[in-house]
């Protein structure tokens, strides 16, 4: 099922929101939170890697991987490779982002996996990995039989969209959770940092919405080898 509108305007809006979201999370972590580091005396710098990598990696690059089928005027095979590579990058950055959160907790003597955000995060990254491996084996190499590919396709699309929506929702929960901790520690509830974090969460949700709208919209052209996301 597709909406009766072209996908291209939605993909352009998604790109703009992606740039805005990336800038906002970097401003937050670099300017307000002091920077990024894998090793540091100030352990908060280690944690700062988490929101940056999860938003830019799993959400933004993952979203770009999804809408690549509706935004790139290329052959299906080329788009399939781009789709796969972008998702691999998103998955790797997501794993490193989660490792950064564990590293911060361990070095700060904070227990792990105590919140809904953390539980969902582990589930999402596992599902994301399963989705990528299955897609690679069935749709790319070595490639499954035509019947299995045909039967798997709608489930692959549905499962991918479901995991992505879950990731966007969990990112919003993560922004809320971190901002709540910061406000408890003295950050002003109506200060510039709090507003920036909230607006970053809003931009993240809007970006996810435009990614889904792109998936549900019509491809740019109607060639036999069209740009339909469903032809993975």
UniProtKB/TrEMBL annotation:
InterPro entries: CYB561/CYBRD1-like (IPR043205), Cyt_b561/ferric_Rdtase_TM (IPR006593). GO terms for cellular component: membrane. Coiled coil: none annotated. It is a multi-pass membrane protein. PROSITE patterns: CYTOCHROME_B561. It is an enzyme of class 7 (translocase). Keywords: Electron transport, Heme, Iron, Membrane, Metal-binding, Transmembrane, Transmembrane helix, Transport. SMART domains: B561. Gene3D superfamilies: 1.20.120.1770. GO terms for molecular function: metal ion binding; transmembrane ascorbate ferrireductase activity. The chain crosses the membrane at residues 12-33, 45-69, 81-104, 116-141, 153-176, 196-218. This is ascorbate ferrireductase (transmembrane). The lineage of its organism: Eukaryota, Viridiplantae, Streptophyta, Embryophyta, Tracheophyta.
């Amino acid at each position: 099922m597709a909406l009766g509108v072209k996908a291209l305007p939605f993909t352009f809006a998604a790109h703009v929101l992606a740039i805005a979201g990336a800038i906002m999370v970097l401003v937050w972590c670099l300017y307000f939170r002091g920077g990024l580091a894998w090793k540091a005396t100030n352990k908060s710098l280690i944690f700062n890697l988490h929101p940056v990598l999860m938003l830019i990696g799993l959400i933004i690059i993952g979203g770009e991987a999804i809408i690549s089928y509706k935004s790139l005027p290329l052959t299906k095979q080329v788009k399939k490779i781009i789709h796969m590579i972008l998702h691999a990058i998103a998955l790797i950055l997501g794993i490193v982002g989660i490792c950064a959160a564990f590293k911060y907790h361990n070095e700060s003597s904070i227990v792990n996996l105590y919140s809904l955000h953390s539980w969902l995060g582990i589930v999402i990254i596992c599902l994301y990995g399963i989705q990528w491996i299955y897609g690679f084996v069935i749709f790319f190499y070595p490639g499954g039989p035509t019947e299995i590919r045909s039967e798997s396709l709608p489930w692959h699309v549905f499962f991918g969209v479901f995991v992505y929506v879950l990731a966007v929702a969990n990112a919003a929960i993560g922004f809320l959770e971190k901002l709540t901790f910061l406000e408890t520690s003295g950050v002003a509830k109506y200060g510039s940092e709090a507003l920036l974090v909230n607006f970053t969460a809003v931009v993240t949700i809007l970006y996810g919405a435009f990614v889904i709208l792109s998936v549900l919209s019509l491809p740019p052209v109607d060639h036999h080898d069209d740009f339909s996301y469903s032809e993975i």
